[in-house]
Structure formats: structure tokens, C-alpha cells
Input
Amino acid sequence: MEKYIPPATQKPKKNILILGIGNPILCDDGIGIHVVRRLKGLIKDTGIILDEAYTGGLCLVDLLRGYTKSILIDAIKSPRDKNGAIKRLTLDDLPTTHSANPHDMSLYTAIQLAKKMGDAIPQEIVIIGIVVNTPPCFGEHLTPEIDQSVPRAVNCVLDELTKTMTPK
Output
């Protein structure tokens, strides 16, 4: 008898995870969620999984397991850059510490720990960061300034997919 795997956890052998990260009720912090929702109408490839995460750090490791590549979309702070600017980052570009939650760890540290433990972490993790330097506010909508960056962030993700899918 074959083992039943619920559809939500089935993963094709070669696959890509596109993960929108953020808090959808903290205005601009939810930018990653808004971008991935827009992408859901554009991407039909069954080997590309689009998902949302309302957490960070160590909790993200569970979501990343088993994929060959992950594209994470999230709000980032960058005082040198203008609100809405989009940056393509890798894990090496991320800080190794953070102070948001003393009971958790940074994404970089969580990934390094998972790799040391032999976890099936994607070989390539790309972060599409949208600069949000304004303080958080409560609401389910993006501010106009950040909302204007959604189509550009969508295009950045699509460009990243094109690079990945194009034979070398």
C-alpha cells in the first residue's frame, strides 16, 4: 500500500518555491504577501509553488525543505535606499543577527543550522527585498508609495524564474 501524502505537502522532484513573507495586517510589512498573490495569476507551472509565510527565521526552514530553489519576497530596511526600491539579495547579504524576537534566530543563522544538520535546504535561495523604511502601521493595504513597487517586484521574480529555467 502506498503512503498517502496530502496535496499540500507533495513536491515535484525539481521544484521552486516562491514565498511571500510578511504580516498582512501591518500595511507595508505585507508587501511579500501582496507580490506572491499577484504572481499566482501569472505562474501556471506545476513545478513552481507559490506560498505565503507570516513568520521568519527558524520557522521558515520548515517551509523551505525539499525545494531545489527558493525565492523569498519580503520587506527590508535600508536607510540608504528610497522606499519601494527593490534589491536582489542572497543569504550572504543578510545580517546574521536580529532583535525582532529574542526567542528566534535570523534567517541566515537558521539556514546554516539546518544545513549543518543535513536538512534538505534549497541549493539556491534568492531574496527579493522591497525597501520599507517607514514605521509599521495597522491595515491590510499597502501605502501608495510601496504599492507602486508591486509590479516591479513581480517582474524581478519573473526575471529570476527566467534565469533559472533557461538552459545554460
In short: The chain has one domain: 13-162. The helical segments are 31-40, 58-64, 107-116, 144-147, 150-165. The beta strands are 16-21, 48-53, 69-76, 86-90, 124-131. The CA atoms of residues 18 and 71 lie 5 Å apart.
